[in-house]
């Protein structure tokens, strides 16, 4: 027979690990979205600067 205390401990451990995986996964997705937005803004700034410079073709 399984000891109820060890079963409860296993469930809490599983819950905590799942929560940590979800938290880190969400943080990774958020970081990727932020980097993508920053890259788009940098590209837009670069293209605007190229358009303002005479003699360059965009």
What does this 3D model show about the protein?
With 58 residues, the chain is mainly α. It has one helix at 4-52.
Question: Topology, please?
Answer:
Layout: H1 4-52
Tell me the overall shape.
rod-shaped
Helix content: over 70%
Classify the oligomer.
single chain
**Count of extended strands:** 0
Largest sheet: none
Q: Mean pLDDT across all residues, rounded?
A: 89
Secondary-structure element series: H
Q: State the secondary-structure class.
A: mainly alpha
Low-pLDDT stretches are: none
| Tally of helical runs | 1
Assess the beta-strand content as a share of residues.
under 5%
Q: In whole angstroms, how far apart are the ends?
A: 74 Å
Based on CA atoms alone, the radius of gyration comes out at: 25 Å
Short summary of the structure?
With 58 residues, the protein is an all-alpha fold. Helix content is 84%, strand content 0%.
Question: What keyword list fits this structure?
Answer:
single chain; 58 residues; mainly alpha; 1 helix
